[in-house]
């Protein structure tokens, strides 16, 4: 045990040995030399009739040696043992503990029994060792478990082009093998789905483009008919043909937009001057409003000069919103543009004086091909405008908010781009 085999502590097994050696010397010496008393002993020297002559302790405690050892014939009283040394005309009584003791007097005064601090130190050492080992083990296993977290995160993000490395721990390796199998199966599934979608998009796109040619011929021939003298019935039929042509052409254009919308848009985000975007938006919106004699109200309240955006795509998104607003606003109505900034976003809010969104449309109007809102359905909309706009705004890490305007009582669409 700690310090036992050094000069710091006297172990229990040596106590009796030192007492025996000292007793012989103290008994047989002519002149009593108290330095021969072992350091771990307290002593009291009595005359033959019990008078106290000298002691290392206070008088009351010293006299108790005589009562315990001589009168009561006890050689121990917890936690002490007593040793009587008969020197003929005087009696020396030693008191000591049967326990390991420090040799240093100051340490002995604080810790009469050395076993207690030794056990405490040993316990502290064990705790420190346990903490140290636990720290090392935690650091070691933490690094291995981190591999699991990295793998699961990559799978969650569908980043599947990576290799799973061995961790060195059997249980973790088994989990990694399962994740690797899942990764490979997911990769196969996604690749198959991607190929199928791509083929479908190419087929739809090809079909849409192929339809444009006969439609163009149909329009051209119908326009030639208008150049001839037509009776009322013939003109009515020609009008039906042109009306149907326009609808079919719009359907084809929508099919093309659909295939394009499923392909990730080419984005180039850069610091873009807000004033330039708004200037171009305003010019285009004025042109849209002029057709239906709509009044454009334009309010600006912002201080930021630049935002991170793809100018062309953002223009496309805002003009989609504006075009919807014009389509749903009656002739001679109003459209309100509110441009402002808050702590987090640069906002472009467009409100019209149409019928507004129904509760269902507020939830679903951003879905692809959603046309379920009777209050806002027309023959020229196919549920793509807000879907495409929302896709673009998401690419900008922004939001597209739908609401009904308190001011205009029509629909309100807000484009939010992070500052």
UniProtKB/TrEMBL annotation:
It comes from the Bacteria. It is a multi-pass membrane protein. Its main location: membrane. PROSITE patterns: HIS_KIN (PS50109). GO terms for molecular function: phosphorelay sensor kinase activity. One of its GO terms (cellular component) is plasma membrane. The chain crosses the membrane at residues 116-137. Pfam families: HATPase_c, HisKA. Its EC number is 2.7.13.3. It is found in: Membrane. It catalyses: ATP + protein L-histidine = ADP + protein N-phospho-L-histidine. Coiled coil: none annotated. SUPFAM superfamilies: ATPase domain of HSP90 chaperone/DNA topoisomerase II/histidine kinase (SSF55874), Homodimeric domain of signal transducing histidine kinase (SSF47384). CDD domains: HisKA. InterPro entries: HATPase_C_sf (IPR036890), HATPase_dom (IPR003594), His_kinase_dom (IPR005467), HisK_dim/P_dom (IPR003661), HisK_dim/P_sf (IPR036097), HssS/ArlS-like (IPR050398), Sig_transdc_His_kin-like_C (IPR004358). Keywords: Kinase, Membrane, Phosphoprotein, Transferase, Transmembrane, Transmembrane helix, Two-component regulatory system. SMART domains: HATPase_c, HisKA. It is an enzyme of class 2 (transferase). Residues 206-419 form the Histidine kinase domain. This is histidine kinase. The lineage of its organism: Bacteria, Bacillati, Bacillota, Clostridia, Lachnospirales.
